[in-house]
Amino acid sequence: MKLSYRGTPYEHEPIALDMAEADRVAKYRGQEYRQRYPRHIPVPQAPLDLKYRGIAYGTYQTPEPEAVDIATHLNRTFANSPSEPLTRHKRFIEAAQLHRANILKRLEHRIQVARSKGDVNLLQQLEVEKLQLVESQR
Question: For a tag site, which of 47, 109, 112, 115 has the least CB within 10 Å?
């Protein structure tokens, strides 16, 4: 494509992108259209062993623990007992218990990662945090 900027002509070759259409249909001035956006393809990075100021670390990906969706869990939990009316207080208690369980699960994952990396200071801090969390549940 031939273009010019301030009288200087130049050739422009647009980059060919893999485009995808959005699932939603939008309407602008009475015309319906689907938004198009470039499809992003994640490029996996090779894991590296690095060192910063004498401290070794790596760029390894650790799997994240699966978080539980509170709304889905509550619906699944209370769907089994339709005769019992749900009160706001019961839902609050159930959500608080589920929230603590998710925090504990994430904390356990962080402890495993700290153990695998051999980070003693972080491991001690996480153990103290876990004790505080367990004591607050009692």
Answer: 47
